[in-house]
């Protein structure tokens, strides 16, 4: 039975999801997984996405991303837009990243094979997030075929650099005003695989913790390693700092859970027979609302002061290319119209009410949900072994997410 027009839903017998071809969807995914595209090396992937859209007359554009000071990166997002008929209707952003982590060691097959077995497609980046990106691409194509039936606009952004240190591709969208008129965003990250709690699709993730990185320099005094008592060992003091930070209490949030701290790297001691007089320490800090840059920095300084070390210690937050380029935490209201529409369409398509949860880590959604203050929902296909060997995505989920995004967009923007 079709839903009424006053609910803003198209006739259930003629949904955009009906236009999505599962076989063609997985063929596209297989093609894109076979393209090597670690972060900052996405040119071939961007061309493939651009060409796929252009072949369907969807008028893609390259959107330049440049950051010369820290990373030296130059690349291109791919952006396309479907214009609605009512300038007062909402605008929906569909966001997915084209890059992967660097290919990890240990695969027992070609890490870009795109092999399909038992409903799983394997390859580095298959789950994070070429599966989700393909869901958005085919949903966008299905929506374009509505041919003027949308009141609101849809902006598709396939971005670079999400797996890199700063999320430069999506942040450039904000800098250049591409997101200025956006009223809601769907990011097709693999939510179930990286949610706070173990869950299966259908699932809607309505927020994420934020993140900072401490860069700590410890300076001691050199001495001959046969008489360590004559020096001040910077490596030992850095280890004490790492341990103290690891044990430090973090704030918590009712939806996002607790913040967390993870020491990542200690470097020091170049001389084979000398007490190290310098050491650097990198520490990851996941945060929840209320834990600002100033608070996070002050807490670390207090921890160091309480240790009464002989070394001198400098604690900073990692340098960023732009002053407000931070992965801030955010939460999207469960009662937002986009969330309600996703929930309704999910239940209609799957027969199951979607789970509500929150993302454990950081990503481009932080730029959208926190910095741009856009109500942002993460909905993507499930899989496993994200950032690891044997990474795979569930092919049925790729199709399901495409259908969900297409029907939700049509309903919300009608």
From TrEMBL:
- Reaction equation(s) it catalyzes: N-succinyl-(2S,6S)-2,6-diaminopimelate + H2O = (2S,6S)-2,6-diaminopimelate + succinate
Record-linked InterPro entries: ArgE/DapE, ArgE/DapE_CS, Bact_exopeptidase_dim_dom, Peptidase_M20, Peptidase_M20_dimer, Peptidase_M20A
Q: Has keyword Amino-acid biosynthesis?
A: yes
- Domain (Peptidase M20 dimerisation): residue spans on this chain: 207-309
Task: Tell me the Pfam families matching this sequence.
Answer: M20_dimer, Peptidase_M20
Q: Which UniProt keywords apply?
A: Amino-acid biosynthesis, Cobalt, Hydrolase, Metal-binding, Zinc
Matching CDD domains: M20_ArgE_DapE-like (cd08659)
GO terms assigned for molecular function: metal ion binding; succinyl-diaminopimelate desuccinylase activity
Swiss-Prot/TrEMBL cofactor(s) = Zn(2+); Co(2+)
Pathway, according to UniProt? Answer: Amino-acid biosynthesis; L-lysine biosynthesis via DAP pathway; LL-2,6-diaminopimelate from (S)-tetrahydrodipicolinate (succinylase route): step 3/3
Has the keyword Metal-binding been applied to this entry?
Answer: yes
Membership in a protein family: Belongs to the peptidase M20A family.
| UniProt protein name | Probable succinyl-diaminopimelate desuccinylase
Q: Which organism is it from?
A: Natronorubrum tibetense GA33
